UniProtKB/TrEMBL annotation, chain A:
The lineage of its organism: Bacteria, Bacillati, Actinomycetota, Actinomycetes, Kitasatosporales. Keywords: Iron, Metal-binding, Oxidoreductase. This is 2Fe-2S iron-sulfur cluster binding domain-containing protein. It comes from the Bacteria. Signal peptide: none annotated.
From TrEMBL, chain B:
This is FAD binding domain-containing protein. It comes from Streptantibioticus parmotrematis. Keywords: FAD, Flavoprotein, Oxidoreductase. InterPro entries: CO_DH_flav_C, CO_DH_flav_C_dom_sf, Diverse_Substr_Oxidored, FAD-bd_PCMH, FAD-bd_PCMH-like_sf, FAD-bd_PCMH_sub1, FAD-bd_PCMH_sub2, Mopterin_DH_FAD-bd. The lineage of its organism: Bacteria, Bacillati, Actinomycetota, Actinomycetes, Kitasatosporales. The keyword Flavoprotein applies. Transmembrane segments: none annotated. Residues 1-169 form the FAD-binding PCMH-type domain.
């Protein structure tokens, strides 16, 4: 073995295959080989969430903590894959409407994370702040729920207030 | 760096036997941090993601067999009623992104004293199923942690599953950190009431070289509950008993001063968490007893 492998996956619906160094993370593959630069490299160890992408439809993951070779056959959606042509995804539109950013570096990760967070709350998954006696069914998107569910994404500009408003609007 | 991708459990065991230094990687939430920062440069990585059975769980009559790679998200979604202690701890692991990837096998493999699953595992009294080409063995959780970031695995062994007794009573978990998400716990505490055996088990995280139980505290509490007939009469635990329990938990810890907190703060916080979680679990137990009597 020479430390390389062939990997084939779908990025925003398009097939992509390449022989890559085994140490390549999904984040580096996306940014440096596939030219998909929406996911950002903030901390490179899963703390900041700027590299958040959706794996196989709905699960949000940190692209910096995944080895690309382990994802053969996977379906990856980045912020570039959310809009429908020129029509923004509702979460993207809400971030614009509520001014949910300042510098924008964390935004692609925030938006991918929010898409999954909203789907999880609608599916009735509880979080650590969901009261134990909550009946089954969609979880009420209170500010506390949104803050907890978005806790894997940091914003150094501190746009949290507007991010919560944006997520809340779509989650309702 | 070589990258091995076994398609079956048997292939994985054969690969581990051939490359005992190979680092197993499943969710990758710990191993990848070390690789990205060059803290570790493994010659061989053993990717376990293709082995479907590691992502499965089975709820039996008395025990739950939890595949090593079942993500914390899945534990929260599916196993809250049968493994409440572990599910509560799972809620607080890192962030949603990490919980979608990480699982209990990784916590056990790294054996960091700060792993969030350990207090719940110790309190449950589970067993860890490990295997190699030589065969399978069950390691009681009390014998699993042998040193700082060291566990009882032989170099050719892999963690396959965790066998946890189904909860027979209330269980709780609590931890202290600067925020809920993405912090390494300053210290953590888990408790499980076992009414069927009239015992109590505990687990302490981040306050000793390994995750530990507070055995003296467990024994004291079980004796006090028995003596007062509390399991039957469901009365409130006297504050003096709760205080003594908390002090014994503090005393069981062997913490250090580090950047996250001082040893004396950790001891103090453990006592507070022990008293609170005992109150929560006992309230739940009394509530259940009361509604059972009314029914």
């Amino acid at each position: 073995m020479d430390g390389t492998s062939e990997v084939g996956l779908r990025i925003n619906g398009k097939p992509f295959s390449r022989v890559i160094d085994n140490r390549t993370t999904l984040l580096d593959l996306l940014r440096e080989q596939a030219g998909v630069t929406g996911p950002k490299k903030g901390c490179d160890h899963g703390q900041c969430g700027a590299c958040t992408v959706l794996l196989d439809g709905d699960r949000r993951v940190n692209a910096c903590l995944l080895l690309a070779v382990s994802l053969d056959g996977a379906d990856v959606t980045t912020v570039e894959g959310l809009a429908d042509g020129d029509r923004l995804h509702p979460v993207q539109q809400a971030f614009v409407d509520h001014d949910g950013f300042q510098c924008g570096f964390c935004t692609p990760g925030q938006i991918c994370s929010a898409v999954a967070a909203i789907a999880e709350a609608r599916a009735g998954w509880p979080s650590v702040v969901t009261p134990p006696d909550t009946p089954p069914g969609p979880v009420e998107p209170t500010a506390a729920e949104i803050r907890e569910r978005m806790s894997g994404n940091l914003c150094r500009c501190g746009a949290y207030v507007n991010i919560v408003a944006a997520v809340r609007e779509v989650a309702r | 760096m070589d990258f091995l991708r076994p398609a079956s459990w048997e292939e994985a065991l054969a690969a581990k036997a051939e490359h005992p230094t190979a680092v197993p990687i499943a969710g990758g939430t710990d191993v990848m941090v070390e690789i990205n920062f060059d803290h570790r440069r493994p010659d061989v990585l053993l990717d376990l993601n293709r082995i479907g059975e590691l992502h499965d769980w089975e709820v039996g009559e008395d025990t739950v067999r939890l595949g090593a790679s079942v993500s914390y998200t899945r534990i929260i979604e599916n196993l809250r009623s049968v493994l409440p202690g572990l599910a509560t701890a799972s809620h607080t692991v890192a962030s949603p992104q990490i919980r979608n990837r990480g699982g209990v096998g990784g916590n056990l493999g790294c054996a960091s004293p700060a792993g969030d699953a350990h207090p719940a595992l110790l309190a449950s009294g589970c067993e860890v199923e490990v295997a190699s080409v030589r065969g399978t063995r069950m390691i009681p959780i009390d014998e699993f942690y042998v040193g700082v970031k060291r566990n009882a695995l032989a170099p050719d062994e892999l963690i396959r599953a965790i066998h946890l007794p189904r909860a027979d009573g209330p269980q709780q978990f609590s931890k202290v950190g600067t925020r809920n998400a993405m912090v390494i716990a300053v210290c953590a505490f888990g408790i499980a009431l076992h009414p069927s055996t009239r015992t109590v088990r505990t687990g302490i995280g981040s306050a000793a070289p390994t995750p530990i139980r507070a055995k003296a505290a467990e024994e004291f509490l079980a004796a006090a509950l028995e003596e007062g007939g509390f399991w039957d009469n469901g009365k409130i635990i006297p504050p003096a008993v709760a205080r003594q329990f908390a002090e014994l938990v503090s005393g069981a810890a062997n913490p250090i001063d580090d950047v996250r907190g001082s040893a004396s703060y950790r001891r103090h916080a453990l006592g507070v968490m022990a008293r609170r979680t005992l109150g929560w679990t006992w309230d739940e137990y009394r509530g259940n007893e009361r509604s059972a009597r009314c029914a």
